[in-house]
Amino acid sequence: MALRLGAILFGAALFLALPTVSDQGIVFLAGLVVIEAIFALSWNLLFGFTGLASFGHAAFFAIGAYLTGYGLKAGLGVPFLGLIAASGLLGALVAALTGLVLLRRTTGIHLAIFTLALAEVLRIVIGYSTLLGREDGLASIPKPTLELGFATIPLTSGTAYYYFMCVAGLVIGAVLWVVCHGPYGRLLVSIRQDPQRVAFLGVNVGRKRLQAFILSGAVAAIAGALYAPWAQIVTPESAHWIHSTQPMLASLLGGAHSFWGPVVGTVLFSIINYLTRNLVGLSELVIGATLLIIVLAAPSGVIGLVRTAQQSWSRRRKSGAGPDGDEGGSVRS
């Protein structure tokens, strides 16, 4: 536990220190990592904890990105936190409507395909919408000003908005951690493992799955809301199925059944992508092969591989201890 907390604090400190030691390009990529990590956490709430797969999760991301991007670009006068909240509510509403229709009739691969189809329909609709810029999307989205009532904090500089995203990511991550490690999260894991037995105990499995779907859609939309001012452009590609694969790959790479797995996977995926950026024509092949090797070598993800190594090392220490529990010194369990 102490090692895990230390790693989290070290990672947070590293991200917070980046603007002082790196150029703007690296800081921009780090901001994208924060956003994609939130997006991956939202997807893994469905897959890793509830056992539901969504292949069109980018639709919720696009909903939040377009709502916030349009609100800032059009100058509607809505506070930035209000736009983020509205994005989360709209994402939750769309997820509720989608879940009410789909979760009563299908799960598994059928649910995944239906969500993929719905996301592609949304992408096509956005592409034909003049209000949303058609295929060109919304460009020149201004960075916002944070109004707290008692204070006004300008986020117009890249560094200021980057720190805002880091704080928002920590808050969202903490809230999701509490949800996933509380009674509700344990219930979702039980539903993933054996829904029939949970239903036999009197739990409304369909309702719990719908609640997880709604929460996941809301968080994905909030990730999109944070993305719009950072990239300052939103296009229909944000709802593309390729974007939906990013949280899947990140979760599988880091460890889908671990809460922090998607975060670790997002960081590693971004590092691999950055290191292979100059391999023109071969970048996708190298990334795909690397991910395939890692996933095959570690089916439980990188975090699962680390846990296995720790357990193996602990067993070796215990097996090498003398009859009195020491081997050239004391060993504490």
Description of the molecule:
The protein has helices spanning 2-21, 24-50, 58-74, 80-102, 108-127, 158-181, 183-193, 195-200, 205-231, 241-254, 261-275, 283-297, 301-319; strands at residues 138-139, 145-147, 152-154, 233-234. The chain has 333 residues and is mostly helical. The strands form two sheets. It has a two-stranded antiparallel ribbon with strand order 1-4. A two-stranded antiparallel sheet has the order 2-3. It is globular, with a radius of gyration of 21 Å. The relative contact order is 0.16.
List the helices and strands and how they pair.
Blueprint: H1 2-21, H2 24-50, H3 58-74, H4 80-102, H5 108-127, E1 138-139, E2 145-147, E3 152-154, H6 158-181, H7 183-193, H8 195-200, H9 205-231, E4 233-234, H10 241-254, H11 261-275, H12 283-297, H13 301-319
Antiparallel strand pairs: 1-4, 2-3
Helix pairs in contact: 1-6, 2-6, 2-9, 2-10, 2-11, 3-4, 3-9, 4-9, 6-7, 6-9, 10-11, 10-13
